[in-house]
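Escalation from tier 1.

The customer reports that the assembly of two entities below gives different structure tokens on two consecutive runs. Tier 1 could not reproduce it. I'm attaching the input and our single run for tier 2 to review.
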Amino acid sequence: MTCICVDAMGGDEPPEVVLDGITKALAADPQLEVLVAGNDDAVTPFCERTERAKPLVTTEVIGMAEHPTEAIRQKRDSSIVRGLAAVRAGEADGFFSAGSTGAIFAAATMGVGRIRGIKRPALASALPGLVGHRTVFLDMGANADVRPEMLVQFAHMGRAYAKVALGVDDAKVALLSNGSEETKGSEKVVEEHQALAAADCGFVGNAEGVDLLTGSFDVIVTDGFSGNVALKSMEGTAKFMFAAIKEEVAHSKRSALGALLLKPAIKRIAHELSGDAYGGAVLLGLKSPVLIGHGATSANAVQSGTLACAAAVRGGLVDKIAQALREQ
Amino acid sequence: MTCICVDAMGGDEPPEVVLDGITKALAADPQLEVLVAGNDDAVTPFCERTERAKPLVTTEVIGMAEHPTEAIRQKRDSSIVRGLAAVRAGEADGFFSAGSTGAIFAAATMGVGRIRGIKRPALASALPGLVGHRTVFLDMGANADVRPEMLVQFAHMGRAYAKVALGVDDAKVALLSNGSEETKGSEKVVEEHQALAAADCGFVGNAEGVDLLTGSFDVIVTDGFSGNVALKSMEGTAKFMFAAIKEEVAHSKRSALGALLLKPAIKRIAHELSGDAYGGAVLLGLKSPVLIGHGATSANAVQSGTLACAAAVRGGLVDKIAQALREQ
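Tier 1 run:
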């Protein structure tokens, strides 16, 4: 049995949506147990009527807009803080929440702890690619300032995740830059390129922003500032395009009919881009797998996040990262 | 009369496409003259049969993939180098090319020269926004490493361009970061925030990547590294979405019909995102307006680039930037 702690209070949706997702995950995976963290009235009745679900009753909720470090300091009895403490105590093997990324990152770094030797945990996601080939992208915003040796660790962590989540052996790693030549980039990025090239971490050279969704590389690493800029720019473009299609629809019957017919396809593309199809984002470098879903979550997203977390536990994600560090 | 030098050899398309664009621009603007730079066989017969078009016969062409500084050093008789020299010599008031951005940037900085006091020219573009409100975005890749005082100059240059190209008075300027709070960002970006806040340049705070296409700010400034990452990420997302729609179409008759009906709308959106609808990118900080079109150009893109360049000349773009610097 693999036990995942799931935060019933995380995200913009009511706990019922998360609980539906847990039900789906349990149905899909008979070897799964879920420790359901949240308010008594939400989690206790659910666990009474659900096999392989145990309640972790908490009294506080950290909102999406709260200041991360203040929130986790003040709300010691929140589902995020207590859920991650349960993981540390061995009551669960991994954690999934659709709650505040900042709060989960802060609570997990303190609560679960880093793998020995890891300087900074990083936030990663498996982006969709044009030919169905996904690219693990990190750091998506956890560390705005990094040193070159941290990028090398990001490469190792990304490779371990590509192996466990995507089944990719010996993943090819690229560095996000503003051109493919090794001399391209800010001074800092040129230094990072040199550090990656000198390490044994599958490094093949620079990638550009346009490569993030082509599946040309297995892993693309960058600092958390550029990672956030890239991710938010992609999100903004997708929003712009969906909104622009809506606007066209309002002005033309032909476009309206076209959009209606294309709706299922467009929904699938939006779902792909949201990241929920593949368990959301993952915090790499911690002693247990911690996965974070999109705030605007759904039962399907909670299901895939919970199952992806269980797969990371069973695939030995943490051991693979620890081993890569030892072999450095 | 306003005279714009247009590079007939620039871009991935044959000179005929550029010449068609020049014809359209001349027809649209009776106060426009064009100095057409390019190979004899392309430009001389065209200028003989076209009113208000004069040839600038050159013998060399700088390709899109050539190393910018080497190319401009070796190809002294190229349309880019000679065209920009003609602008410096006063034979034309501005320059438009759909050629290599790097080569044009290098040749223009040397050939046309910087406005007195400008530390670094920057590459800007007016991005489309959700409510039809455009955002001037710079630096899109000219300077990977910048100092805080350069960002302040970028703010002034962006405001001048917002005034001339978009008619926006007293433009609101934001700094690209990974969060809206002033403490967000890398150490470098936090310093840039402080420098912008201390200057009288319309600064209102941080923007995120998702704000680039919402029209929430008139100007968004960043260093050329992050600017390139953001721009290429947006480009990649648009490509991904168009390709994903195509893929859906291949698998479903319903989607295929929908896509067929939506095609004109999708083409309009792609055109908006390509930047060609509003003259492409502009190099700010030079003594004359220099505009750069997308390499995969069209007659319409050349037309709007040439007209936008003439509008920048007539609107006094260069004087407005010089004045903003004097008033600092």
